[in-house]
Amino acid sequence: MVSATQIVEDFDTFGVTLQDAKLIEKCLDLCRAYGVDGEGIAACWISFASNNGYDSLTPEGLDHFEREELTKNKKTSIKKTENFQIYDASTIDEIAGEDDNDLIVAYGGTPTPKQRSKRQLTPDNNIVKRHVGPSRSISAQFSPASMSPSVVTTPSQKYSSRNNAGNTVSSFGEMKKENSKADMRNNLEMRVIPMGGDEILSQVYKYMFEKVRDAADVLDDIITSLADQMITDLNTEEYSQLTSPSNEAVCTVGRICCDSVGRLNFASVLLEGSREISGGSAVPLDLSHLSEFSLFPGQIVAVRGVNTTGNKLVVQELLPGKVLPLPDSPDIIKNATDAVQVVVASGPFTTTDNLLYEPLTDLLSVLKENPPHMLILLGPLLDAAHPLVVENQLAETHEAVVSRCLRIITSTFENSGTEVVLVPSSRDVCCPTVYPTPPYDVGNSLTSVSDPVLLDINGTVVALTATDILFHLGKEEISFPPQGSDRLGRLARHILRQQSMYPLYPPPEGISVDQEQADTNARLPCTPHLLILPSDLRYFVREIEGCVVINPERLAKGVVGGTYARLEIRPATQEKCNVAERVGVHIIKV
After folding, report:
1. Which CATH number describes the domain made up of 164-202+326-589?
2. What pTM does this model have?
């Protein structure tokens, strides 16, 4: 039974404030009538609102939502909603479950992923050659005459009518005034840090060739690695076999998984042990004696409990992972005499009703006047789920659209001193559909890194990913008590405790994870100073386990504008200085 308090919190997670008692009661009626919980109805409303231009929740909007979305799709869409499988327009690719033939049809004959990944997306290989110079505005450069039909180049009325552009909607720490147009490159030193391995992911690798045995070995090694770190916290010298009967409390370790096909619930939690400790066996967990817990599939946990029959482990204590220490190197801004400013924006960069890239245009215009030391753009540059891409309504190739974006970004910051860093996304039409995702092939015009990536910015270690791991974890996580703690902070804490940028296993449909590459390029070697996790969930900035976690949300959300983040990293006043004391963050409406 969904309560009023719970449904208010569920809507707030997606950035929708519910205050009117009539609206709350109406939402509760919809939950009861269609068998959906609060988070499911909230996710379904976000998708509907983005596609139909609703800025806020109104009684008329809910009536329209019920007629068009719930009633018509009761047998199909509602079933997906119950499993948290309905998202907004920017994540359709994660639920479509399209096979290769469907993708070829949707993309209108786009080259295969292998062919696309080898094609260089330099700012000079655009098929449609047009003059780009200082005499043309940024918005004009995004409007080539070759694009058709007219809907592609029709400005978004909903986006243009917004009245909150430039507003700061969330802040953390202190911020000084923005930079001038002076050359700032001498104040910035950046390098890419290898993740779990010795080499940085810098080029396309062969994927879809991973053997089951190799993937299993990687997953088993992860259990062993975290088990060695957590054993001292349980005050024990060794772990016991999972299924060994015992009348006394024993300590063991393993991976959380579900006992059937479907979403994890309190009655279906299994603990799967490693081959070394438990021979790969699994045992059901009885969690009724725990006062609080938060679990998701793929999570490595250590437990203390009693297993009298060998068939069920009654858990008395549970350790949800281990947080690594901060980087050993002193977190001092080495060559800068003043604060370093970084702007972070995540795609999609255009609204779903055209390809004019109006949000990106507005962002570039603002940054051209007040350039940061570094601009980090996380993909997708061209979302495979964009309606105009899905419906094949483009008169030019996908590579041409992306190349134009890259060329305009390059020309905007020419001679400005701003370092532009591109982080790819597996949702991008022009990127391999695999995680970890290799860098965009853009030549030397911009700095292109992999997804995920670990950056050292003047001594401050920053971890980034373009993949919406917060949303994916939120769909699968179970917790007790239901309203017991901050949900968004809890989801981010999982990443730090599991020491991985993508700890969820198995991943949801639409996300292809190469486990061997993920073990090398998605394992955190330390707790970063800053962790940037763009998500469809509500923007936030929090200090968690000594790390400042930032969700800048998306630059475009359906047919309306989103947000981006401006960071200020100040020099450390002493060798050991808490990063939260010298970082300022503003989340800003585009």
Report:
1. 3.60.21.60
2. 0.80
